[in-house]
Design a protein that fits this description.
This protein has 201 residues and is an alpha+beta fold. The protein is built from four helices and twelve strands. The radius of gyration is 16 Å and the shape is globular.
């Protein structure tokens, strides 16, 4: 199925409101609020999702693949504003190039964050410049890859005498896992559920 901007807007309008989801064994509140941008790039072969790989020297999540995003700061007027600010700081993406589509249900992590994913549509051309301190690489993951359940691998490991299961999406030598993989799987499930008609009772 080919997804257009308006098709995505319609589907997410009807199916994005849901219960908080997240990693297994995620701790109870209080939680630190964060926002990420699920940036969909309009490409000829179908939409792609902008992802980054963090630099290896960072204290938190070094070398991991993630969405542009970070903590919501007091000066952020909205969750969407936080996601756009972080994307501009991390990858140099002009907020004016992002057409905001929908905020998704929050995602709770084992590290104590409540992440608010914000979906936005990006029309090329656009400029990106990674923050060399935080971002080692910027790449695009085809939406068609995300939508294929065969790419949603389930793995586990034992930590503090407890087995934790999580999703992994291997792509071209990259290892997408943890909260990012969990949010991608949740996003794919939203898009593969038929949206009800606006005229439905």
């Amino acid at each position: 199925m080919q997804f257009t901007r308006e098709h995505l807007r319609k589907i997410l309008h009807f199916s994005s409101q849901g219960e908080i989801c997240g990693d297994e064994a995620a701790p109870a509140s209080p939680r630190l609020p964060a926002a990420v941008l699920i940036g969909l790039v309009d490409r000829m072969d179908g939409p792609t999702v902008l992802l980054t790989k963090r630099t290896d020297h960072l204290k938190d999540h070094a070398g991991q693949i993630c969405f542009p995003g970070g903590r919501i700061e007091p000066e952020d007027a909205t969750i969407e504003a936080a996601a756009l600010r972080e994307a501009e700081e991390e990858i140099g993406l002009d907020p004016k190039k992002v057409d905001l589509i929908q905020r998704l249900a929050p995602y709770d992590t084992t590290t104590g964050f409540r992440i608010h994913p914000v979906v936005g549509w990006i029309e090329p051309p656009f400029d990106i410049t990674p923050d060399d301190f935080e971002v080692a690489e910027i790449f695009e993951l085809p939406l068609s890859f995300i939508l294929d359940p065969a790419n949603h691998q389930r793995q586990s490991h034992i930590r503090n005498n407890q087995r934790r299961s999580y999703y992994v999406l291997p792509y071209q030598g990259r290892f997408i896992w943890g909260a990012t993989a969990g949010m991608l799987v949740n996003f794919s499930r939203l898009l593969t559920v038929q949206a009800p008609s606006p005229q439905a009772p």
